[in-house]
Predict the structure.
Amino acid sequence: MGKRVSLAGWVHANRALGAVSFVVVRDRCGIAQVVLSESLALVPETVVEVEGDAIASAQAPGGVELHDPSFHVLAEPAEPPPIEMRRPVPKETLPTMLDLAPVALRHPQRRARFEIAAASLHGFRATLDELGFTEISTPKIVASATETGANLFSVDYFGRRAFLAQSPQLYKQMLVGVFERVYETGPVFRAEPHDTARHLAEYTSLDAELAFVRDHFDVMAIVREVIAGMVRAVRERAAPAVELLELELPEVPSEIPAVHFADTGVEDVDLAPADERRLCEERGALLFVTGYPMAKRPFYTHPEPDRPHYSNSFDLLFRGLEIATGGQRLHRYGDYVAALGDKTDPYDAYLQAFRYGMPPHGGFALGLERWVARLIGAHNVRETTLFPRDLNRLTP
Amino acid sequence: MGKRVSLAGWVHANRALGAVSFVVVRDRCGIAQVVLSESLALVPETVVEVEGDAIASAQAPGGVELHDPSFHVLAEPAEPPPIEMRRPVPKETLPTMLDLAPVALRHPQRRARFEIAAASLHGFRATLDELGFTEISTPKIVASATETGANLFSVDYFGRRAFLAQSPQLYKQMLVGVFERVYETGPVFRAEPHDTARHLAEYTSLDAELAFVRDHFDVMAIVREVIAGMVRAVRERAAPAVELLELELPEVPSEIPAVHFADTGVEDVDLAPADERRLCEERGALLFVTGYPMAKRPFYTHPEPDRPHYSNSFDLLFRGLEIATGGQRLHRYGDYVAALGDKTDPYDAYLQAFRYGMPPHGGFALGLERWVARLIGAHNVRETTLFPRDLNRLTP
């Protein structure tokens, strides 16, 4: 205060009020008001460096404003931006915001969502680092249809047909045989033919897998630690974004409540979106549903020992939406051979791991965009994806 | 010591020596010797839990061994493993090791390489977090040929033709307009038609980009911090791997030396691998080469103001190999329109960012597998990739 200071950023707003003008400058930390005795022809989004005297001002954002400024223009926009940055919330529709993403994301209310995402990623990794997990990088181009075999994108791989991995599932299991506890954060690809508010063709999957578990409850205990770590990281590392978006972060109980599928009142073999909403209303914002029928789970799922049409699997619901799925996996070679029947060929490498001794293990995958959507109360996962990909959208 | 303890892991070796037998059990932390008065029929790679008395023993690995054990078998291999884990260094050729990756990676000497990689990733992110960078997740499926346009994989995207991103370059630049300082760690894809020891079809790129730079030297200062942070993280977080592999970690000078391309004695417009080796021998294990001729750099490269056939770009050489490349980028809309000429169409979204005001900026990309290869002295980047992808290899 009282000193000559300099800052650099974008002209967020520029208005004349009688004898004085105000130029509001935005950078990644916030906005600052600059007061001038003359009006300057600075188009919004002009990139400037400004030097001025820092003067206390109760009305100014942040309680300080710059007087007696000198401006240096670093780059001039070719035209005024198509979005009014100074509105507290942009008035444009979601498709327009997505089309204009390179500039729309500059809006502080939009940028804040991705600061929440970055903090969440940090919390995920920090929690698992602390628990002795090793980070892995597995291939996204794969030779054959894995997991369910549905919704795969195909790639021309030097004249051969290959596919984009719909998850790191098979690789993280193989690597449990190497590191015991592994995680990966990265893109996964689903050629999702339906245009819904909860599906994307490409999203960020937070995957973990761990060995020497008794059953899926050991995995759920890790999920609880991860969720708590992500909330903590958001609170500590993205405090300005939490404040700007007026978020109410969830309290993570020391044990997240769990309900068995058989006790949900659902007659079908899977939950419908309405069931997920109802269960969270009835039982808590964070809720595990366990024991899904084997009929709806992939081939590597471990059955429930005493009721083998149910499984040692779970989904995590958060504020009415499934955000994570996981469970105990089969670990005996013979069980895989039996589960795959005459379809073992595409799984040759995967089966190698089991042929040479694999411990009981399990894991989970959490969708980053869904997690952030539930945190900020967005209905559509496109709201929390920088550059979403779907049936109709491949740009920007 | 003297207590009853339990551990779980894989049977690493099993041998009888007269009246006693030794079973060596391996887990992610190391190996432990179990002493028995009878020999047990445990095939290597059997997954066991073992309880025993911890007894000090100077000859045993780690100075302790387990006596009077009771074994519980968790999973039996279908057959003995094709690789002898108890050899200090596997004798198999690289192609065999890659074919057998799910089990070959369990060898402690192999596993250690990827502990170095995980620690390096941590160091990269931790350094940039500290410097105010925001982590981003950008799309890997893109609409059109970007950057150089060469070596792209094509994807069938709901019946349309799309491509796999060969780098996050254009997205990280757009997002510099949002967050000022960004980084991303993730897969990039190159349909590299040559089968060399330094190229992969898919690798992990560590990308960063920052705004408000004076020129490429500001970017190089960040690269120096990142390299120092990665070395520190490897030293602190992967100490057992460093010891096992007998690594000599580089000293990172407070300023990494730099030589201008014009002073390298190279007549061509780019360095050959032999030039890279020679320059490191002459000038240091870590060396920046700056000012590469514009002719060999992509369209977004900022020219050197006083000698515009040179560029404000750099490569970082480490022990004779280029491991990172970067530079200052163009930031004025008009400069991009001029650089792209009549080829602006595929860059519509990218140009939006510049149309609405972008600060002077620059950045770099560092190849994780090359970095680890140089750290451990491996000639081939396939040695430091969990499941490499190349012209001839798409599995495991």
About this structure: Chain A touches chain B through 91 residues (CB under 8 Å). The radius of gyration of chain A is 25 Å. Chain A has two domains: 4-75, 108-384.
